[in-house]
């Protein structure tokens, strides 16, 4: 056999920023302060301070999304070796190939807008008419519809873009009550020496209101501890499931060990009984061998129902299932289910297989609980 090796080429870079947590509050929420007297800020039944806080959270989310395409470009693109447009609008190195570029949610929407596409902002107020006109189907369309029906605001362009070696959609899901949101891209690279931008999901959530500062700080500081405790509890659940499934085997092994000890004592005192002792051991070992050939044991979990997803802690998962799965790296999200386990933990496993997670397998353990 002749193998002709021509080397390996670098096609792109994928980055997944799964979770971005912040605690923010308004320094001046006094309605008499000059900064809070702007009548344009007092709307939607909220105070000026609340609307300022929401607007700031939106701005920080857009900035974080922009950094998702800017950071890979800054670290992995040598602009001395490719053509690009500088900050003054001048083209540098025009005789060289164009520099690779990244894609993020805000950049995808900006590209679509520059192409003349319609940009949809869909919320509760226009959901009934806008969703009917939404020309996007598949998983992205389903996720957008679910988000809007759950009270979120979604910004998305009308059709797929094909730019910088990447093809797909960019869209933003915002919680209008907080300004926090998810900045997502959904698509694939089509080759070429491009940065496929890559950011499957960037979440800017848990930006909590001033009246929840104490609770948010506790949630923030205990997040890692919750994850560790969830892992310990899941390990205990796994051990419990294994013991329950193999209880017959364990009992038979213990009985066999006792019989062996007694037979050894008998043989020492009466060697002539050795053949009979061997027969007894052989007969006693049959139940243990039969127990060891059992089918696989499973952890006590089931697919989480909407009722369970509604009561999960530290916050409900219902209405943002796709975002939740992507936060923990379970992508593509259509291949995974959210499972509720007997110990109260929430894990992520293969679709339609929550009830058959084998003992010894390691599902995606989250820091969420349902009881």
Topology:
Blueprint: E1 20-21, H1 48-76, E2 84-85, E3 91-92, H2 105-114, E4 119-122, H3 127-133, H4 138-149, E5 153-157, E6 161-163, E7 166-174, E8 181-189, E9 201-205, H5 213-245, H6 247-269, H7 274-292, E10 301-303, H8 306-310, H9 321-327, E11 336-341, E12 345-350, E13 364-369
Parallel strand pairs: 1-9
Antiparallel strand pairs: 2-3, 4-5, 5-7, 6-7, 7-8, 8-9, 10-11, 11-12, 12-13
Helix pairs in contact: 6-7
Explain what the structure shows.
It contains nine helices and 13 strands. The strands form three sheets. Strands 1, 4, 5, 6, 7, 8 and 9 form a seven-stranded mixed sheet that branches. A four-stranded antiparallel sheet has the order 10-11-12-13, with helices on one face. The longest helix has 33 residues, at 213-245. It has helices at residues 48-76, 105-114, 127-133, 138-149, 213-245, 247-269, 274-292, 306-310, 321-327, and strands at residues 20-21, 84-85, 91-92, 119-122, 153-157, 161-163, 166-174, 181-189, 201-205, 301-303, 336-341, 345-350, 364-369. Helix 6 runs antiparallel to helix 7 (274-292). A hairpin with a 5-residue loop joins strand 2 and strand 3. Helix content is 39%, strand content 17%. The protein is an alpha+beta fold and 371 residues long. The protein is elongated and about 100 Å long.
